[in-house]
Amino acid sequence: MRQIELLAPAKNLECGIAAIDHGADAVYIGAPRFGARSAAGNSVDDIRSLCAYAHQFGAKVYVTVNTIIYEDELNETYRLLEQLSEAGTDAVLVQDMAVLDYLVAHPDLQMAIHASTQTDNRTAEKVQWLLAQGASRVVLARELSVSEIADIHRQQPEAELEVFVHGALCVSYSGLCYASQKCFGRSANRGECAQFCRMKFDLLDASGTEIEHQRYLLSLKDMNQSQRLRELIEAGATSLKIEGRLKDVAYVKNVTAAYSEALNRVISQSPDRYQRASRGRCSYTFFPNLSKSFNRGYTSYFAEGRQPGIACFDTPKATGEFVGTVKSIRGNKVVVAGVSSFANGDGLCFVNEQRELEGFRVNRVEGNMLVLQRVPSTLHVGARLYRNSDQEFQRILSKPSAVRKIPVRMGFRATEKGFLLQMEDAIVEQSMPHEVAKTPQRDNVFRQLTKLGGTPYECSHLDIDEDFPFFVPSSKLAEMRRMAVEKLTASAGRKLQSSGAEQREPVLLPRYSMSYQHNISNPIAADFYRRQGLTSFSPAFEVKPPSGSVPLMQCRHCLRYALGACVKNGGRPPKWPEPLFLRLGDGRRFRLEFDCKKCQMNVYAEDC
To answer: Rounded distance, CA 498 to CA 482, Å?
Structure first.
C-alpha cells in the first residue's frame, strides 16, 4: 500500500505546528541560513521543537538547505547539518552538490536527501542521476504535466516524486533564473530573489513599436491542483507540496486543511491502495476555502498541457475571491449585486480602466450595501469586485481552529500480581493486591483511563470486562494512563528518517545544461562534477557572470502563445517583426527567444 504525503510550508515554528494540527503529513521549514527563502530562516532550537511535535503524529520535518554555498561558508554549512541531525530532522532539501556530497559521506547523520526543485528536475534521466548520487526523493519542476510526471514514474518507479500542488509560481524553471542576480545583485539561487517576474514591462517588436504597454507580462497566477490530486497520485506522486514559506499562519491553516480534506476524500475511494503518511484525525472550527487565502487567481498551470490564462497581466497582487458586481453608487455607498455576505473591515479590489488593481476598505455593511470612507474615483457600475481580505474568516483563523488526535485502542485487565494497561503497543503493569469492589467499577475505570485531553491521543475503544469486579484507586489508574502515554509518545518520537543514502549504480550526468547552469559555487561542488566526468565548466553565475549573451530565464510560459500568436498551437501568425523585447520602466531591455522545438521561451539581457 502506497503512503501519500501532504507536505505543508512553515515560515516559523508557529506555522509548522499549525500545519501539523491542520492535517499535514510533513512540514518543510528553513534553516537559520542557506534556504531558498532567506527571509524565512529558523533557529535549530525551533526546528528541534517542531520535530518533537510532528513526530508524535508520525509526521516528518524537512529542512531546506537548498541554496548554492560559497567556499567560505562550507564549514558553517557542515556544522549546521550536524546540528539539524541532532535536532531530529528527517530530511534535508539540497541544491548544492557539496551539501549532497557531505550527507552521503556522513550516513551517521541519518537524514534523507531530497533533491530540491532548484536542481532543475524535469526528466527521467535527471531523476535517475540524482538517485544514483544518493537522493531518496526528487522534487519535480512545477511546469510538468500529469502525463510527464507519469512518464518519469514509469521510467523510475523506485523514486519518491514530490510535486507542487498549490501556491505561487516562478515563471522560470527553478534553479535557472539569473535575472534578479543580473539586474539587482540578488541571487534567486541564494534565496534573495527580487521578484523580477512580478514587475511591469513594455513588450516591443524588432522595430521598437509597443505591442503591450507597462503590463505584468511575466507574472503568473497561483497554482491550484486541488481537483487533480487523484490524477497526480496515480501518475506516481508520493508527496503533494504546498508552496508558501513566506505565508502567514492563517494561510497555512486554511490551505493545509483544504488539501488534507481533499486528500482524505481521494484515499477513502481507494483504501486498499493508498493511505496517509502520518497518523491522526483533524477536526476544524471552520470550513476550509482556498479562495479566501492569498491568491493571484488560480491556474492548473501545465497539468493538462499548455493552456491559456496562466498569467495575470493586470496585477501581481492578491485578487482573492469574486464577490459580485457593482450595482449602483450613491455618494459613499456602493450596492453590490451578488450572494456574498460582507463584514466591516473587509478588503475589496477591482481592476480599473487602466487595467490596474485598485483596492478599498469597507467601513460599514448594511446588507448588500457597503459604506465606504471614500469611493475610488475609478469605481463604476458593473465593475467586478473581489475580496482579498475577509475579516470574519481571518477572525476565526486567528483563534485555535483545529484539533488533531490519534485514535488508540486500549485494554485493561487484572493480572496475577496486579493490573495491566495496554495502549496500542505501550504496556504498563502495576503490582497491587486485588480488592473486590462493593459497587460496580467499570464506569470509573473507563472514565479515568480515557481522560486523554492534553495528549495527542483519543480512545477509540477500551477493552474491559463488563463485570470488572475490582476496586482500583483513581490515582493509580491516572498514573498507569500517564505512563502508557509517555511510552507511546516516546516510541512515536523516535527519529523517522532512513539511515543514510543508498548506494546505487553509477549513472552518467545528463548533458543538456550550459556549464554555468550547474551552479557550481565552491571547490567541493567542482570536484563532485569532475568525478561525474564534467571536464569543462564555468563557475556559477553568482561567482563569475558568463560572458556574452546567455539566457537569464528559461520559461514554459510563452508570450507568443499568451497573445494568440503561436502557430504551433493553433494561433495566428505573428504580425510583428521579431525578435521581441521586454522593457522595464527604467529602460533596460531583454530579448525574447522562442524555442519552438522545446516549446520554451528564453529571456536574454540586452543592456542591464
So the answer is: 30
Q: For residues 65 and 80, give the distance between their C-alpha atoms in angstroms, rounded to a whole number.
A: 9
**If we measure between CA atoms, which residue out of 270, 217, 379 comes closest to residue 2?**
270
Residue type, position 161, single letter? L
Neighbours of 350 (CB within 10 A): 20
Radius of gyration of the chain (CA): 28
Q: Which pLDDT tens digit goes with each residue over 391-412?
A: 999 999 999 999 999 999 999 9
Provide the grid cell at 127: 531523476
Question: Of 466, 492, 518, which residue is a domain's last?
Answer: 492
Q: At what angle do helices 13-21 and 249-269 cross, to 10 degrees?
A: 30
- Kindly provide the b/e burial profile for residues 87-115, where b requires at least 16 CB atoms within 10 angstroms of the residue's own CB: bbbbbbbbbbbbbbbbbbebeebbbbbbb
Task: Specify the residue for cell string 503518511.
Answer: 277
Given 243, 276, 292, which residue is the final one in a domain? 292
- For 100, phi then psi, to 5°, come to -60, -45
- Give the structural domain span for 451: 406-492
In this prediction, the residues of the chain whose per-residue pLDDT falls under 50 are: 497-500, 608
φ, ψ of residue 474 in degrees (nearest 5): -60, -35
Both 236 and 152 in a single domain?
yes
d(Cα 297, Cα 41) in Å, to the nearest integer? 28
Task: State the pLDDT at residue 455.
Answer: 94
For 195-211, b/e burial (b = at least 16 CB within 10 A) is ebbbbbbbbbbeeeeeb
Identity of the residue numbered 432: M
Rounded CA-CA distance 253/242 in Å is 12
Task: Give the H/E segment covering residue 241.
Answer: strand 237-242
DSSP symbol at 312: -
Same domain for 13 and 103, yes or no, is yes
**Per DSSP, what are the bridge partners of residue 350?**
358
